[in-house]
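Re: [ENG-882] Designed sequences occasionally contain unexpected residues at chain ends

Forwarding the minimal case from QA. Structure tokens:
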């Protein structure tokens, strides 16, 4: 027999009754029933119930052990009695009577529980991540993550893509987020950067003629963490295709991404492949107040500015008269809600930094609230009829400059749906957001800036750049969104050197700047570059959605905390003086105050 096990802890069934077996694993739980000890023995594959009584030499050994100790059990497989079968376990019809036990590693008193899924302080969970990873849900999430990545690879290869690895040590990029810099020992005073994304390399692969590239790529950005973005590193399904339009990118990738969700949906519905809605950016910002809308939410925002150009409600009339907008957010079926529900929404809006959230109540066709009173019941009824709102529907209003009103309306749309229980949690709703603006106005610096990806092809090409107001130009850029999260972003690339230079000139960079900052790409485009495009899908966010986790730390093996610290390994840490000298680096203390 094998030194440690003849079977795993998830393998034994009724068909094995009578066999002598050897199992090894962790003591998950112990239950003492007065002379009879039950031990749940756990390994990566499952759980098996071990039984020891006074006739077993294993009893005193197991009694003395703390939970999470590692043991080897020799014993006989027995059928459980009818009343003790555990239908929730694959091994639930059997138990192993222990004839012997060998302690492989005795556990000290635990700093945190492993059995169960109770909440525990994050600093303890991360410091003892090796214990945290033994917990059932987190362990299962990590296994799911691995299976999702494997499924992605299989689907990409099936779609004709080949996986290539791009460099990890590269040049610093002046665009996007802050780089992680790596000092060069051989070249004193110079630095490599960890890649924020393989963007330029994958485009160079297309110029080199590789046609369909993909990679499960590690990316590094020195930015502040949030629930859907971990500090430091993340992984993306990165891809690029030659001789394609954006329609062909969508048609190729819908079966891949949609197929992954379908494979791991576990009974939840998924938007059918080939029918992902394609929503222009401007429409998304109007109807949903967001460029990553949750389509499980049935609420649609409407622009009702024209209704208040002449109104008894002076505040809205003034806002519209000075170039602002009024957006209406339906609150369906709220006739039974008290005024407190509406006032609480207004208080919430103020707590988020907004001036407030107006509202109108309606019960049995009768309107309530100062907006309805001043605007007039007849006008309000006509507006409700126009929008298809019923006699027991209320609504909220977001008013102000278009950008702020859209932001408030979008957040209110989400909050109203949450409060009213309108979101079906058992669905994955996917859509493409398309036609992003190529440029935006940077109010702080009073200049035009790229709004998304500077390497994208502007719609209309160089002619649009030469003749149009930059703020009216859209790009061949697109995002893939699922349940309110951006899970992928991509574009058709600008492969023309002249168009590339002109695009950067509009944001204040010269041809010399382009050659200096993006010299490899710029030179490559002068030697025959095919039309190409692609995207990058966030592996971490996709897995988070599939697992139903609320935070990326719940699907990541060894994440950092909110302060970008690895509590397990103690990173970041000071470098030894010898290391700094080799790198020709001196640490300068920050001035206080």
């Amino acid at each position: 027999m094998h030194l440690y096990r003849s079977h795993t802890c998830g393998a034994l069934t009724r068909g094995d009754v009578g066999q002598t077996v050897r199992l090894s694993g962790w003591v998950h739980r112990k239950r003492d029933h007065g002379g009879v000890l039950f031990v749940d023995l756990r390994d990566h594959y499952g759980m098996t119930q071990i039984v020891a009584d006074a006739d077993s030499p294993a009893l005193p050994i197991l009694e003395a052990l703390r939970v999470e100790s590692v043991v080897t059990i020799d014993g006989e497989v027995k059928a459980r009695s009818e009343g003790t079968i555990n239908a929730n376990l694959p091994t639930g019809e059997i138990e192993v009577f222990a004839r012997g036990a060998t302690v492989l590693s005795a556990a000290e008193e635990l700093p945190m529980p492993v059995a169960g899924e109770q909440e525990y302080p994050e600093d303890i969970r991360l410091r003892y991540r090796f214990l945290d990873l033994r917990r059932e849900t987190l362990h299962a999430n990590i296994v799911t993550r691995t299976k999702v990545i494997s499924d992605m690879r299989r689907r990409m290869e099936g779609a004709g893509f080949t996986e290539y690895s791009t460099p990890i040590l590269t040049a610093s990029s002046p665009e996007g987020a802050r780089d992680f810099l790596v000092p060069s020992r051989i070249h004193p005073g110079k630095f490599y950067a960890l890649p924020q994304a393989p963007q330029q390399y994958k485009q160079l692969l297309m110029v080199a003629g590789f046609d369909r590239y993909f990679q499960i790529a590690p990316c590094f950005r020195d930015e502040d963490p949030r629930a859907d973005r971990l500090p430091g590193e993340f992984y993306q399904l990165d891809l690029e295709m030659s001789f394609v339009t954006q329609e062909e990118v969508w048609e190729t990738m819908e079966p891949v991404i949609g197929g992954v969700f379908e494979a791991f949906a576990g009974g939840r519905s998924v938007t059918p492949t080939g029918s992902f809605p394609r929503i222009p950016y401007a429409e998304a910002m109007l109807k949903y107040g967001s460029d990553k809308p949750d389509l499980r939410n049935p609420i649609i925002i409407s622009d009702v500015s024209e209704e208040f150009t002449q109104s008894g409600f002076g505040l809205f009339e003034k806002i519209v008269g000075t170039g602002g907008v009024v957006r209406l957010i339906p609150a369906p079926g709220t006739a039974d809600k008290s005024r407190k529900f509406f006032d609480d929404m207004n208080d919430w809006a103020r707590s988020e930094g907004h001036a407030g959230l107006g509202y109108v109540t309606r019960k049995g066709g009768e309107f309530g609230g100062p907006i309805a009173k001043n605007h007039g019941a007849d006008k309000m009824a006509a507006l409700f009829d126009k929008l298809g709102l019923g006699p027991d529907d209320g609504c909220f209003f977001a008013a102000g400059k278009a950008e702020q009103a859209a932001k408030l309306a979008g957040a209110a749309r989400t909050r109203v749906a949450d409060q009213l229980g309108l979101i079906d949690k058992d669905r994955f709703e996917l859509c493409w957001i398309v036609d992003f603006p190529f440029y935006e106005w940077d109010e702080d610096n009073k200049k035009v800036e790229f709004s998304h990806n500077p390497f994208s092809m502007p719609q209309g090409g160089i002619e649009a750049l030469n003749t149009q107001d930059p703020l009216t130009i859209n790009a061949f850029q697109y995002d893939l969104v699922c349940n309110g999260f951006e899970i992928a972003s991509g574009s058709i690339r600008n492969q023309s050197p002249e168009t590339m230079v002109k695009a950067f000139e509009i944001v204040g960079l010269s041809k010399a700047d382009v050659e200096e900052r993006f010299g490899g790409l710029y030179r490559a485009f002068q030697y025959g570059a095919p039309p190409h495009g692609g995207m990058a899908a966030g592996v971490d966010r996709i897995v988070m959605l599939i697992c139903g986790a609320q935070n990326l730390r719940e699907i990541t093996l060894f994440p950092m905390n909110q302060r970008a610290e690895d509590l397990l390994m103690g990173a970041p840490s000071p470098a030894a003086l010898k290391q700094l000298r080799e790198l020709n680096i001196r640490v300068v203390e920050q001035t206080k105050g």
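QA comment: On inspection the terminal residues look reasonable. The chain has 18 helices and 24 strands. Proposing we downgrade this to a documentation issue.
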